[in-house]
Write a structure and sequence with these properties.
mainly beta; three-stranded antiparallel sheet; ChsH2 C-terminal OB-fold domain-containing protein
Length: 213
């Protein structure tokens, strides 16, 4: 009665004239929108007040959404980068760690040094060096083509006072313990190609195993 007589606030004129409810993501500098939202935006309170960049846009029909620029650049670097796992010919096999100008070593190599970000400019052959077992384990459930059980170890090489670690298979797990000395031994096949694999040629892996000294 007081509202109708003009002694209070303006009388209630229905839902259409109510200000829309604010949400935390609604831009506070914009005026309130009167009335209910449009049919397309019903249930998405405040979406008309969001900046254009914040609105979710759907890709056009038949168009695949592309990857972000940073991700595309990283994928291009990985595709063009020569992986330093092995650099082997028929006469010579090498086990290369990569070094940056600041002396940091890493295995395998990277486009940029993980420690300082500089480009890695030289390699150090670890094939003629010995390493120390940091930890080791045995896997009894292996993928097709991988020996069972499979003995794996993380070993650490000391190159002029700089430590570099590598993960690889052990030739045997008998009498192997943490702190033991091992040496790299070249193996022509690290797995059996063609076992459960549709393309055997892609599974011909050679490399190094670690043998107790």
């Amino acid at each position: 009665r007081l509202l109708r007589e003009g002694r209070g606030l303006e009388g209630h004129r229905g839902r259409r004239h109510r200000p829309r409810r604010r949400t935390p993501h609604q831009h506070l500098g914009r005026p309130e929108v009167q009335g209910p939202p449009a049919r397309r935006e019903r249930g998405r309170t405040g979406v008309r007040d969001l900046p254009a960049v914040a609105r979710r846009r759907r890709p056009a029909a038949g168009r695949v959404r592309s990857r972000p620029r940073v991700q595309r650049r990283r994928l291009r670097q990985l595709r063009n980068h020569h992986h330093p796992r092995t650099a082997m010919t028929d006469d010579d096999q090498s086990f290369d760690a990569h070094r940056c100008p600041n002396g940091h070593l890493s295995y395998p190599g990277h486009t940029r040094c993980p420690d300082c970000g500089e480009k890695q400019t030289e390699t150090v052959d670890l094939a003629d060096r010995t390493a120390t077992v940091v930890t080791w384990t045995t896997s009894n459930a292996t993928p097709p083509g991988v020996r069972e059980p499979n003995h794996l170890a993380i070993v650490e090489f000391d190159v002029d006072g700089e430590a570099v670690r590598a993960l690889g298979q052990l030739t045997t797990a008998d009498d192997v313990d943490i702190g033991d000395e091992v040496e790299p031994v070249y193996a022509e096949e690290l797995r059996e190609p063609g076992v459960g694999i549709r393309e055997p040629d892609s599974q011909e892996w050679d490399g190094y195993r670690f043998e107790p000294v």
